[in-house]
């Protein structure tokens, strides 16, 4: 009887083992196991060829010609972390820096997430808990409605028509927090919140907890009382790769996946296509800077629905597409006319990208 028992036990364990071995690997598990990360101490970056991916090689040159024609300076495509396309044009190269503009807002998001992960702050707490009262011109009652989450989701309710400066005189009440979405430079007060909460200079905390941990270059440069990030193109790609990998870098969790899940999903009930300073594709409607209009349809109809993006003035772009394992970077001057975030260039560029990858 004992022998029969052990035979049954062995058979059951064998079936369990087979079941485990044949279990389909989820996209998330695949990313964890196979995503490539360049060293933080070297700019050497492994590559992957277009032929390896069975992409349409004949469509690469038309894409690059289009980018050069549209005032681009650099363009990168990563597939699961490896470089597939890297091209520089219009008197730019791999070591020159360029500005991220509002695409750099997402660096503020990431750093705030790290500070929350480390229990320095709570984005749901009111801003005045960290900065004290009087950081706006609103009454204390109205000012105390504004949380750091409102800054990150552009739902502070402060007047967006008073210029770029974020002095109290320019931060005036127009509606209660959470009742109005408006693209506003007040988001930069998040950097002051992080500095106050951590007891460190913003740049120091950012560098030690994000920039240095993924091998980025670059620096914050003050323009019109706002900090704008400048770096080479690969540094922007490194940040995009960190996001693609759910906040990990070579098995080290830099930002919690839980925070990034919030950051890259709809953050309020007014603009479906906006997370925490990230633009979200695949939603049923969206709103744009300097407007209170709601537009039906997705942000970039010919881009994958699961894509989310950092969009900066004059067509600075970080596109992240988990379903296709892609991170795509574009830096340069405005493709056509000046713009704040989304432009017609997005859909035109995606038509060229689709011709290459599909």
UniProtKB/TrEMBL annotation:
It comes from the Bacteria. Keywords: Signal. Residues 1-22 form the signal peptide. Residues 74-337 form the Beta-lactamase-related domain. PROSITE patterns: PROKAR_LIPOPROTEIN (PS51257). It holds the Pfam family Beta-lactamase. This is CubicO group peptidase (Beta-lactamase class C family). It comes from Algibacter lectus.
